Amino acid sequence: MLFSASGKMSGDGDMASVMGFSGFGKKARTFDLDAIFEQTRRTAIERSQHVLGRFTSTVRCLQFYYFLPRKQESESSSDSDSDSASDSDSELIGPPLPPQFTAKDDDDDNECLRLPRRPGHADSTASSDEDEEEENPVKKIPDTHEITLQHGTKTVSALGLDPSGARLVTGGYDYDVRFWDFAGMDQALQAFRSLQPCECHQIKSLQYSMTGDVILVVSGNAQAKVLDRDGFNVMECIKGDQYIVDMANTKGHTAMLNSGCWHPKIKEEFMTCSNDGTVRTWDLNSEKKHKSVFKPRSFQGKKVIPTCCTYSRDGKLIAAGCQDGTIQIWDRNLSVHTKFHCRQAHIPGSDTSCLSFSYDGMTLASRGGDDTLKMWDIRNFRKPVNVATGLTNYFAMTDCCFSPDDKLLVTGTSVKKDEGNGKLVFFDRASFQRGYEIEVTNASVIRCLWHPKLNQIMVGTGNGLAKVYYDPVKSHRGAKLCVVKSQRKEKQAETLTQDYIITPHALPMFREARQRSTRKQLEKDRLDPKKSHKPEPPVSGPGRGGRVAAHGGTLSSFIVKNIALDKTDDSNPREAILRHAKEASDNPYWVAPAYTFTVKEEQKKRNFLLLFFKRNLINKIVED
């Protein structure tokens, strides 16, 4: 049966009145969709206008900040034109200016509006000092403050800093690798982890990958290792067959490693060089075999040992410095012939300790074992652009690196024990003049890193120190995070004591046992022969009760000691040897009869042989 809407409503009302209540609950809420859409459209228009106004005001503020005066309208000759111009100037086009940018007096209307000056730039002389600082790169060196990290007592031969600058890893001649977390350290400057990943092999090189999740460890053995951020093993390269002559046919290195580094663009690829005369690239996902092999060769085509290797900034070139003084550069995809080759880069026989590409990729810096630092233009690789001499180098891993702005070149110097201080030397890239020096410590300066994000310099020395130089204004995070934290106090061991609660009105079943004094219990234990048994003193004399005296606790030890005791006096060895000589001569029973028999037998054999040879000789003469 069908009902109309009005009939249904009246029926509901009649039913509600019959059942004794007013209605069947709240009515359903209705929505006007057209009104909602209209309101949303208006809100969007208002927000767009607001954002556009903020953008316009920002553009004006930037113009004021860089001191760009607004164009003033030309004054007209007629009064009407001037009045109209003044009226147009009084009208503000666009959003209103913030209060701090409005002109205070009417006389300043013709002057350009400016933002409040930045701190330290109050006048024109300050801005000129800033320009001078930008022109002089030496003033950008962050060396006003330093912290010292105690790695150990031996040489710090490896430094690695992750791309974000949160963690530093150090390695040395003491086989240890230490992990330092700047955000987790306090003023005590303690490493949060120390391990020996390569057992008893010196650490040659440490480097984080481009993502910072794994670390390449190059040590004195033939197998490089890859660790994660917490020091756990991820991969170990395979060792090659050392009985194969052609090193390209082996799966890995067969001799001690010298250096290694990660690819700057491919996070799974890294490179190592070894004393077997090869430079090999590896894939992190394939540890059973190398990826490619590069074999440096001398001018005569003989094998030479690469002492250092590196990638170019774009990862397309591979450079290696060799023991014969050459620097050889290959295309990463062509491992047969070199793309650039300088045969007299350094003195033959000296280990080239470091190669470093500039950030623009056009310049290569080489630190030689011949106490020189050279800068090369790879577009003209025949001779160096600049050369610096007199930089003592006693280590095969002395670093050189470029500053983040590519205007300075940094390296360290070596010193002998108690003969001066090791220095960090800065060279201007354009003029190659020694612009600045930092005396680090009374030991050699070996490793150096200049992190581009932190703007801090890390230095590894020959006396087991790792120093971090920073500037509170120019540097960011890093060492600034740990120097502001106070040293944590050592937590005392907490003793747990059970409190005794006295409840005199408690029921007997809930009442705790009364604490009694332990004095009476100790007196009872003293009287107990088992609990207070006195240790037996050592036996003196021959022994009693089955115990042997001072010769031991068992009979066998007593017998052994008595057998070992020899009462004879051998103070005169000649008399001891000739002690039985007279008896042997008087009664030659053992020696003389046996010797006499032996002599007679030997004499008979000789006589027989002599007679035999004589007969043969006579017969031969007669026949002739």
UniProtKB/TrEMBL annotation:
- A single cellular component GO annotation: site of double-strand break
Query: Which stretches does UniProt call biased (Basic and acidic residues)?
Result: 136-145, 512-536
Where is this chain compositionally biased, Acidic residues type?
76-90
Task: Return the InterPro entries for the record.
Answer: WD40/YVTN_repeat-like_dom_sf, WD40_PAC1, WD40_repeat_dom_sf, WD40_rpt, WD_repeat_GAD-1
Question: What domain of life does the UniProt record list for this protein's source?
Answer: Eukaryota
Sorted alphabetically, the keyword list is: Repeat, WD repeat
Region Disordered: start-end pairs: 73-145, 512-547
Which family does the similarity line name? Belongs to the WD repeat GAD-1 family.
- What this protein is called in its record is WD repeat-containing protein 70
Q: Which organism is it from?
A: Sparus aurata
